[in-house]
Amino acid sequence: MIYVASDHAGYPTKLKVLALLEKHELEFEDLGTNTTDSVDYPDYAKKLAEKVISSPDSVGILICRTGIGMSIAVNRFKGIRGALCRSEKDARLAREHNNANVLVLGSTKCCAKRRRIIKEFLNAKFEGGRHERRVEKLDKIN
Q: Tens digits of per-residue pLDDT, 67-84?
């Protein structure tokens, strides 16, 4: 399952992301927002984090204007490894090396590359090995 959420600034981009997931017949759940009216991004980061934590095989995609606010917010949750990715390489390495389970996108950044970034994130797999102990240490941080 892929959970997707945004704040008001990310809403137009979220619609494009949902269309892409639908086109590729991927299972997803839209967690809001569903308007460009002002909302507080931590509320949507929390909603998505709780879903991803409760479903270990799932991933999330969060979107706000720069991606920075959502990245800060979602990484407050134990068991979440959110990565703000601005390139395909960032997305691939976030999964392979850090076992990232949330992709964070900025709505004003990487527009031309967005599809490729999402594809890399969803297709990459955690390598384990030498990276395993580092991810375990991340999960032990309060």
A: 999 999 999 999 999 999
Catalytic residues: 97
Distance CA 70, CA 83 (A): 10
**How many C-beta atoms surround the C-beta of residue 19 within 10 A?**
10
Q: What tens digit of pLDDT does each residue of 31-64 get?
A: 999 999 999 999 999 999 999 999 989 999 999 9
Topology, domain 2-140: Ribose 5-phosphate Isomerase B; Chain: A, (3.40.1400)
